[in-house]
Design a protein that fits this description.
Layout (H helix, E strand, L loop, with lengths): L3 E6 L5 H14 L4 E5 L4 H5 L8 H10 L1 E4 L13 H9 L3 E7 L12 E7 L8 E6 L2 E5 L4 H17 L4 E6 L7 H15 L5 E6 H10 L6 E4 L1 H15 L6 E5 L4 E5 L16 H18 L2 H19 L13 H10 L2
Parallel strand pairs: 1-2, 1-3, 3-12, 5-10, 8-9, 8-10
Antiparallel strand pairs: 4-5, 4-11, 6-7, 11-12
């Protein structure tokens, strides 16, 4: 059996706990992967480096093509810039993919949610290009390029076709930001018309779209959008299915891919066996499917399906962490999944 090398970035806060749990599940499932550990963020500084994103970490991902990453803390309003943003830019991981679906055993207002958010990952306001013009005056730049808009929309339509999705809804604010959001609309229309007319396509002004999402999320299939919109929408959609503890994520480029849970590092509960590892485990199943697609390895897909079946069974049996209304800790939920493998 071929073994695939994956770079593991444990992160900080609850990161080491949820990544350790995920490694145990992958091992129990017989996933054909081996991990090499590298660090980023506060965890890198704690190990004596003077770089929040060491070259050794980036080089390892470039060498092996795949990473599984725990959450890294980003200070609010001060301090260093986001490690996540830096990593996406350095590796050109331009497509963020965040599936959101209802889970048996997790009761929410909606029980039939099945969405995918595809987000441009390198430009826009979220990229954090800010300057102080004078005392008390800050300018934040929203950059959009035709290259980035085209590659994201083309990638999204191709993804929809491969995953047999029926419709793409492009969320935008082009009625106000006519040039930047308008560029995304232009490229999406071209890709749809010329390359993927088989996929239903619609354009939705984002404020109206957010209202429609909370009224009836079943009206949407794939939501595609620019960077900042996607960050906000994906968290809103997580709330439709049980929260950030059950929503995985991927950052994908032409060469490399980094898989990570959508949630943050939650330092307030770190080390207390309280974190829900499911989003990280789900991200790992996305990683296995990615390896299966890129490297034509059926054993990765089989391991992914086994893990999905196991965590679904655990939830159906009422085995849940506290954020989902249960009583299990990180280790206990991990064991519940392993037992069902």
């Amino acid at each position: 059996m071929k073994t695939h090398t994956v770079v593991m970035i444990p992160g900080d806060g609850i990161g080491p706990e949820v990544t350790t749990a995920t490694r145990k599940v992958l091992e129990a499932a017989g996933a054909p992967v081996r991990f090499i550990e590298r660090h980023a963020g506060i965890a890198a500084l704690d190990r004596g480096t003077d770089d929040l994103l060491p070259a050794a970490t980036v080089d390892a991902i470039r060498q092996h093509g795949v990473a599984l990453k725990g959450p890294c803390t980003t200070p609010i309003g001060k301090g260093f810039s986001s490690i996540n943003v830096a990593l996406r830019k350095k590796l050109n991981l331009y497509a963020a993919v965040r599936p959101v679906r209802s889970l048996a055993g997790v009761k929410t207002r909606f029980q039939d949610v099945d969405l995918v958010i595809i987000r441009e990952n390198t430009e826009g306001l979220y990229s954090g290009v800010e300057n102080q013009i004078t005392d008390g005056v800050i300018v934040s730049m929203k950059v959009a390029t035709r290259v980035a808009c085209h590659r994201l929309t083309h990638w999204g339509f191709r993804y929809a076709t491969h995953r047999r999705r029926q419709k793409i809804s492009l969320f935008h604010k082009a009625n106000i930001m006519k040039m930047s959001d308008g560029l995304m609309l232009d490229e999406a229309r071209k890709v749809h018309e010329h390359d993927y007319p088989n996929i239903e396509y619609e354009e939705v002004i984002i404020d109206a779209g957010m209202m429609k999402l909370v009224q009836d999320p079943t009206k949407f299939d794939i939501i595609m959008c620019e960077n900042l919109y996607g960050d906000i929408i994906s968290d809103l959609c997580a709330g439709l299915v049980g929260g950030l503890g059950v929503t995985p994520g991927a950052n994908i480029g032409d060469e490399d891919a980094v898989f990570e849970a959508v949630h943050g590092s939650a330092p307030d509960i770190a080390g207390n066996n309280l974190a829900n590892p499911l989003a990280m485990i789900m991200s790992a199943t996305m990683m296995l499917n990615h390896i299966a697609d890129r490297r034509q390895d059926l054993t990765c897909r089989q391991a992914s399906e086994r893990i999905k079946t196991a965590y679904n069974l655990a939830l159906e049996d009422g085995q849940k962490t506290r954020d989902l209304g249960g009583e299990l800790g990180t280790k206990e939920f991990t064991q519940a999944v392993i037992e069902r493998l």
